[in-house]
Amino acid sequence: MNIPTFIDVEKAHKVVAKYAHHTPVLTSASINEIVGGQLFFKCENFQKVGAFKFRGACNAVFSLTDEEAQKGVATHSSGNHAAALALAARMRGIEAHIVMPENSPEIKKKAVAGYGANITFCKPTLQARESTLAKVVEETGATEIHPYNNFFVIAGQGTAAKELIENIGEFDSILAPVGGGGLLGGTAISTKKLLPACKVIAAEPAGADDAYRSFYSKTWVPSENPQTIADGLLTSLGKRNFQIMLDKVDDVVTVSEESIVAAMRMIWERMKIIIEPSSAVPLAAILEKKVDVQHKRVGIILSGGNLDLGKLPF
């Protein structure tokens, strides 16, 4: 199983920089005071399609040969990756075929349709998603772009941490949320190359703790019936990202639902920016004192800002 290196992240950055936003890094004096450290938030909620996922999708789509691209791309996703792939495909002028569970949030269905993708709905089980996608790929000849277990996707996600470090400099630790692990994998690859002494820490909801259990048992544990408000972190860790995690990640910590909501609210209120629950998980880990930030410089990847404003948890 080939794993991207930092050279692949650098190549990805040349591609991604042409199409994606170079997102800002924001700080909050009041949050710093509360936690006793200096936090630097890399705001991927301001990325195209409102999430870091555009980086990986964009790199994957533009890394296809003309021959491969001709038949389009396909994936199964209930959310941000679906929208990201649809937009990247539109930018390259090719078809995107997206398999979505029928219970996906309405806002995400609308976004994917808005970018011009061909949507096929399926039952909300992994088996239904995979079998429906297999059928779509067979019928269309499209290239499957997995949301997180894809070489080019992981390399693309690594460009967020690369920008953060190049813009801000030294860090004691960098935190990212973990679901499928594409963002975590890419973040770890960039961080360990540019700042070898910097700790890479993954944060995960306690109700969806497969990465935590995989990390500590050193064996890949699938996610079974996860329960969390952080809907972007429900998926099982990708096998490639599991390998990167064992090699390059220093710790995985879990947080309660209450802390996720409190951290999300703190960012909305104090930083005046909209983030989705998944983005709040790293700050929740700091608020729960699962990560020591006293007098330290800490980078946090805010993964995205897509949520249904009619269903806020506060």
CATH topology name of the largest domain, in short, is Rossmann fold
DSSP strand tally: 10
Strand order of the main beta sheet, please? 1-2-10-7-8-9
The unreliable regions are: none
Characterize the largest beta sheet: strand count, sense, and whether it forms a barrel. 6 strands, mixed
CATH architecture title of the largest domain: 3-Layer(aba) Sandwich
**Content of β-strand:** 15-25%
| Helix vs. strand class | alpha/beta
* Domain module tally: 2
Gyration radius, in Å: 18 Å
Shape, per Cα inertia axes = globular
Distance between the termini: 43 Å
Order of helices and strands: HEHEHHEHEHEHEHEHEHHEHHE
CATH top-level class of the largest domain: Alpha Beta
Q: How many helices?
A: 13
Residue-averaged pLDDT, rounded? 96
Polypeptide structure, described:
This protein is of the alpha/beta class and 314 residues long. The chain has 2 domains: 6-51 and 150-311, Rossmann fold (3-Layer(aba) Sandwich); 54-144, Rossmann fold, CATH 3.40.50. 47% of the residues lie in helices and 15% in strands. The chain has 13 helices and 10 strands. The protein has a 6-stranded mixed beta sheet with strand order 1-2-10-7-8-9, sandwiched between helices. A 4-stranded parallel beta sheet has the order 5-4-3-6, sandwiched between helices. Helix 6 (106-114) links the parallel strand 4 and strand 5 (118-122). The chain is globular and about 55 Å long. The N and C termini lie far apart (43 Å). The model has no long low-confidence stretch (mean pLDDT 96). GO terms for molecular function: ATP binding; L-serine ammonia-lyase activity; magnesium ion binding; pyridoxal phosphate binding; serine racemase activity; threonine racemase activity. It holds the Pfam family PALP. Keywords: Lyase, Magnesium, Pyridoxal phosphate. InterPro entries: Ser/Thr_deHydtase_PyrdxlP-BS, TrpB-like_PALP, TrpB-like_PALP_sf.
